[in-house]
Amino acid sequence: MQKLFRIVSILVISIFATASLAACAATTTESNEITVVVHDSAVISDALLNDFKEQTGNTVTIIRGGDAGAMTNKLVLTKDEPIADAVYGIDNTFAGVAVDNNLIDGELTAINYGDVCMNYDRLWFSKREQAAPANIAELVEPQFNGLTVVQNPNTSSSGLSFLAATVAVFGEDRYKQYWQQLKDNNVKVTAGWEDAYFTDFSGSSGKGDYPIVLSYSSSPAAEVREDGLSQTEALLDSCYRQTEFAGVLNKAKNKAGAEEFVQFLLSNSFQSSLAESMYVYPIVEGISLPEAWEQFAPVTERPVGGNLDLNANRELWLKEWSDIFAD
Questions:
Q1: CATH 3.40.190.10 region(s) of the chain?
Q2: pLDDT tens digit string along 181-225?
Q3: Residues 258-284 pLDDT 10s
Q4: Minimum mean pLDDT range among 24-38, 53-67, 77-91, 139-153
Q5: From which residue to which does the signal peptide run (predicted)?
Q6: Per the count of CB atoms within 10 A, which of 59, 101, 195, 251 is most buried?
Q7: Residue 75 has pLDDT above 90, yes or no
Q8: What is the pTM of this model?
Q9: What is the DSSP letter of 222?
C-alpha cells in the first residue's frame, strides 16, 4: 500500500512550497473557480481561503461529504461526473479505495496525521469513584457496560482505524470474539466521529451519556479546563496512525487550480493552523504546536496495525463487523 502514496519530502516542501504556488499562479486556467470536497471535520478558515485567492487568483468553494469513509464512497459513486476538482481528507484506511477506483489524477499527497484511540472522561469516573479502563481489552468488562461509543467502520475512517487496531491487538483468532463482546456489552455505534464525540461523549461540549469514546490521542488537548488540566485522557496502548491525504480528482474541471490548492495545503500558513483547528498533527516538520500539546496531545510511540494489509482485507473485515453489529 505504501508504494501507492507519495509522502512528500519535508525539506523540499519547506524550500519550494511558496515558489511552487507562485509558478502555478502564473498558469492560465479556463476558470478561477475551484470546488473542494472535504470530510465533515475539516476546517479551512475564510482567512486561509482569502490568502489562497490572493496568491493564485482562485476562489474556492468547500463542500462537505460526510465522514472520510462516506466521502470516499460518494466520490466512487460520482467519479464519472465528479462533484469537485480536489479532495482533502481521504485517509490511509480508505486511500486504497480511491486508488482502486482511479479517483485521483496523479498521486495522493499526505497533509496531516493523528492517532486514533479510545478516550475517556476523567471527571465522569472520578465523580463515581470508579476506575477508568486501562486498555481496550477492558471495554468488554461488566463495569463498562453501555458506556462506550465508537464509529461504524463502513462509513467512518476513525471507525475503520479502530477495526484495524482491534485486529492488530487481538490477532486473527480473537478479533471477532472481541467485537461480539463489545456488542454484548452494549457499545453504541454511530455513523461518524462528530456525532460520537460532540453529541454522545460526556467529556465534550455535548455532555452526552457515554464517558468512553473512540477519538484521537490529541483530543484531550481540546478539553483542557481553567485549572490547566484536561477533563479527558486517551488510552495510548492501541492507537492506529491515521494519515490524511489530498489530491486532484480525475476529470476535474479546473485541474491546474486543484493542483495549486493541494500545494497550498502544504504551506506553512495552512500547516500551522491544523493543530488548533482540527487537532491533528501537520505533516510538515518544524511547525510549532500549542504548548498544551506536549502534555495533553502526545504522539503515540508505538502505533498498532501498521503491518496490516488493510486494502486486501477491508471487504472481509467490514462484512464480519457488519454481521456482528447487524441488529
A1: 2-113+242-296, 115-240+299-324
A2: 999 999 999 999 999 999 999 999 889 999 999 999 999 999 999
A3: 999 999 999 999 999 999 999 999 999
A4: 24-38
A5: none
A6: 195
A7: yes
A8: 0.84
A9: G
The single-letter code of the amino acid at 183 is K
Whole-number pLDDT of residue 30: 58
Residues with Cβ < 8 Å from 172, sequence gap 6 or more?
none
- Mean pLDDT over residues 120-147, rounded? 98
d(CA 139, CA 125): 14
Number of neighbouring beta carbons within 10 Å of residue 60:
22
Q: Which CATH architecture has domain 115-240+299-324?
A: 3-Layer(aba) Sandwich (3.40)
Q: For residue 156, how far is the Cα from the chain centroid?
A: 9
Architecture of domain 2-113+242-296: 3-Layer(aba) Sandwich (3.40)
Classify each residue of 274-288 as buried b or exposed e, where b means 16 or more C-beta atoms within 10 Å of its C-beta. Answer: bbeebbbbbbbeebe
* Alpha-carbon span 264 to 34, nearest angstrom: 13
What does the chain come to in residues? Answer: 327
**223 close to 231: Cβ distance less than 8 angstroms:** yes
